[in-house]
Amino acid sequence: MRIFDGKLLINGKWVAASNGATEEIKSPFNGSVAGIAAVATLIDVESAIASALKGAEVWRRTPAHQRSAILMKAAALADERSEEIAQIISSENGKSLLEARGEAGRSGEIIRLGAFEGSQLYGTSLPLDANKGTGQEKLGFTLRQPVGVVVAISPFNYPALLVLHKLAPALGSGNSVVLKPARATPLTALALAQCFVDAGLPDGVLNVITGAGGELGDALVSDSRVRKISFTGSTATGTHISRIAGVKKLSLELGASSPVVVLPDADLELTTRAVALGGYINSGQVCISVQRVIVHEKIKDEFLNALQPLVEKIKVGDPKADGIEVGTLINAKEATRVSQSINNAVKSGAKLITGGEQDGSIVTPAIVSEVDPNSAIAQDELFGPAVVVSTATSTKQALEFANSTPYGLGSGIFTRDVDSAIQAAREIDSGIIHINWTPLWRADLMPYGGLKASGIGKEGVRSAIEEMTEVKTIILHGRAWN
Fold first, then answer.
1. Can you tell me the distance from the alpha carbon of 189 to that of 195, in angstroms, rounded to the nearest whole number?
2. What pLDDT digit, counting tens, does each position of 89-113 carry?
3. How far apart are CA 301 and CA 303, in angstroms?
4. Phi, psi of 143 (to 5 degrees)
5. Quick check: is 23 catalytic?
6. Cβ(9)–Cβ(190) under 8 Å?
7. What is the pLDDT of residues 242-291, one digit of tens each?
8. Contact at 8 Å (CB) between 323 and 315?
């Protein structure tokens, strides 16, 4: 039995929930038990926050080079345990081992990036003598310091990467953390937390509680002792958090319906290959997955004829089987929802080109064409393995369709024309715009975040550190001299 099975991490110790409650975490593929998680109570929330308060006082006063050294040890442990972590990801999340190994393999790199960036908290000097009435007898500068206690709430779809995109910058810059991972996938977060504990992280600096998101989450985000919330999840939940959080810093990574525009001069081989990757990785359960393709009417048939065989080659099935590229959705309920969305679109006049068949928690990769850009399957976040295709008569109309949803996280455009690329960069309202690639690409160091209903604030380790620190202005007053 793993040390963290059925336990919470509070004040550096693995402890049972206050009422002893646990639950089985099961594979979405076959229902086998992946592990045991504690079901925390509000008493445990209080213990975790109290622990984090003490941890924050210790960690903010720990020199940056010492913090960095501990995080580097944690990164090395994450590297050593990469296969174990990948197996946990695949078991509790249902993604293929191929994808899980890729995710686990990035874990150490994100921690190392957090260690480096967190040690580089530069300030700026202030030219106070430029202000009329002030001479050179004063010195001014800014000082950046950690906010204190960070609450991190992570989703199920990337149970390692999206946990670490919160933990690494928070810990690297001197904050303590209370982490609440998704109820469906807590085991990966606990395994990663074990890396930090074994690396020598001081007691209370990292606390992990598992269980019901609504009850625990509301208590965490509304607590006045918490100075920063980093949340990734639905727009509805993010809106709720913003209403109850009170006065504190918020980073909310929310929903999306990411568009890709394909113009007549696009390289169709590149385009279809990218869409076949970007629409179906992790069974489409990615906020920057390709959901909508807006293709110029001149090349619609050519585009679909090239895309269909690539999508039909994707190997779907048992996440642990050799050669499988795409596994399950997170549960059968979600698979049914996605399947029904596809069926409803077809009933409304769209055409199912391929896929869309449900078998338990699996939905085969689908292409749906002739989709009304204003229909539900285009406007709402699908979060499943389907790409919907609409046509446009001009570049102007294609960009209008790209902007037509409430969301604005990621987008892409395929064109050889520099003018069209610049126009897209200027006109598309999304936080990330890819020229000649799909939205499904992310470097861990780049700013990452959306516009409109896709959220507020930025992730990406350097940007997250800015969000997780505060700036003080220091004025040193001396006497005037002649």
1. 10
2. 999 999 999 999 999 999 999 999 9
3. 5
4. -130, 125
5. no
6. yes
7. 999 999 999 999 999 999 999 999 999 999 999 999 999 999 999 999 99
8. yes
Residue 229: strand pairing partners: 151, 250
| Distance from C-alpha of 254 to C-alpha of 229, rounded to nearest angstrom | 13
Residues in the chain: 482
CB atoms within 10 A of CB 84: 12
Measured CA to CA, the distance from residue 346 to residue 231 in angstroms comes to: 34
For residue 195, CA distances in Å to 84, 163, 205, 230, 357 come to: 12, 13, 13, 21, 40
| Residues pairing with 413 in the sheet | 261, 435
Question: Cα–Cα distance between 122 and 73 in angstroms, integer?
Answer: 24
Structure-block tokens of residue 218:
């509301």
Q: Considering the candidates 253, 334, 381, 467, report the single residue annotated as catalytic.
A: 253
- Give the tokens for residue 447: 């700013």
> Taking the CB of residue 65, how many other CB atoms lie within 10 A of it?
9
Query: Tokens representing 475?
Result: 């004025």
Element (H, E) at 81: none
Q: How confident is the model at residue 480 (pLDDT cuts 50, 70, 90)?
A: confident
Task: Look up 287 and say whether it is catalytic.
Answer: yes
- 419 near 263, Cβ under 8 Å? no
234's tokens? 């639905």
Q: What is the distance of C-alpha 5 from the center of its chain?
A: 25
Whether the model clears a pTM of 0.85, i.e. scores above it, the answer is: yes
Residue 31's CB is within 10 A of a number of other CB atoms, namely 12
